[in-house]
């Protein structure tokens, strides 16, 4: 049966299959192949890398997938302290072990990503990947559109980076513009930074996204309903079913005390986790 491209929250038992999807989606990505240039090396390191990332982000970011593991998106929230110091340290150590002798390349990638960071509250699309056999079927768009509507309703921009030039047109068609670019030192790839401004024509409390999806502040890997605070509002998600309860309202800009992107901050210490977006 063909999967309908409707976004939902990732379930704990799907981590393995989604890690495999992302490893195949990014098999030719310039940044990841700069870190792991050998095919055999990537075959071993790719799934392990994305397992680490999915488990790290699971309780703190919004991870979406369509009906199956055909595509995966990881959105990091605008709150500056979404990732505590222990979580960042643990991710740094795990990535350092994974990179091994290529850790210096990872550091250069992290520096390049940090140079593209913009100091403003925003939703950050850390990863968007679609399995090669599922590309062109609307899965990437299905994982973008609900969160872009959420950005519009909250009056917040969306940011991402990509090292694949062919992706620029895909994102331009969805309102993103290039706001910076850099080249990773030591023979690395070019990386573009993109930004999408919120749609100012929408009402402040636009609720068009609420009919199908309310991505939570976080979803924990247990079988219980998880409630987390987003500013003054609560959202709920049941990881067992993937069903999301309506949000009480959008995150107000005044509720976000400081614009520090935790994903890039981790990567600047021991990077290599996020280097491109592949629809």
Q: Main sheet, how many strands, which sense, barrel?
A: 7 strands, mixed
CATH architecture designation: 3-Layer(aba) Sandwich
Using the coordinates shown, work out and report the CATH topology.
Aminopeptidase
Net shape: globular
N-to-C SSE series? Answer: EHHHEEHHEHEHEEEEEH
Backbone CA Rg:
17 Å
Mean pLDDT score, rounded? 75
Name the CATH superfamily classification.
Answer: Gcn5-related N-acetyltransferase (GNAT)
**Oligomer designation:** single chain
Which percent bin holds the helix content? 25-40%
Q: How much of the residues is beta strand, in percent?
A: 15-25%
Low-confidence stretches: 203-263, 265-277
Strands of the biggest beta sheet: in what spatial order? 1-2-3-4-5-7-6
Instruction: State the helix count.
Output: 8
| Distance N to C terminus | 22 Å
CATH class: Alpha Beta
- Secondary-structure-based class equals alpha+beta
Number of domains: 1
């Amino acid at each position: 049966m063909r999967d309908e491209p409707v976004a939902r929250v990732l379930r704990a038992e799907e981590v393995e299959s989604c890690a495999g999807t992302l490893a195949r989606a990014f098999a030719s990505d310039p940044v990841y192949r700069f870190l792991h240039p050998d095919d055999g090396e990537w075959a071993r390191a790719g799934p392990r890398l994305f397992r680490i990332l999915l488990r790290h982000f699971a309780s703190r970011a919004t991870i979406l997938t369509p009906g199956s593991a055909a595509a995966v998106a990881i959105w990091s929230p605008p709150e500056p302290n979404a990732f505590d110091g222990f979580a960042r340290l643990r991710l740094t150590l795990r990535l350092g072990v994974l990179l091994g002798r290529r850790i210096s390349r990872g550091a250069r990638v992290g520096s390049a990503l940090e140079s593209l960071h913009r100091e403003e509250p925003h939703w950050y699309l850390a990863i968007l990947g679609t399995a090669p056999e599922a590309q062109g079927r609307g899965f990437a768009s299905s994982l973008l559109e609900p969160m872009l509507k959420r950005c519009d309703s909250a009056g917040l921009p969306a940011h991402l980076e990509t090292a694949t030039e062919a992706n620029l047109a895909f994102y331009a068609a969805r309102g993103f513009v290039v706001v910076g670019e850099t080249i990773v030192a030591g023979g690395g790839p070019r990386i573009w930074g993109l930004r999408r401004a919120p749609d100012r024509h929408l009402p402040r409390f636009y609720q068009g996204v609420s009919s199908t999806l309310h991505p939570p502040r976080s979803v924990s890997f247990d079988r219980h309903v998880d409630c987390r605070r987003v500013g003054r509002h609560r959202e709920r998600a049941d990881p067992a079913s993937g069903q999301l309860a309506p949000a009480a309202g959008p995150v107000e800009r005044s509720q976000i005390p400081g614009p520090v992107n935790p994903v890039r901050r981790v990567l600047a210490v021991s990077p290599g986790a996020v280097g491109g977006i592949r629809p």
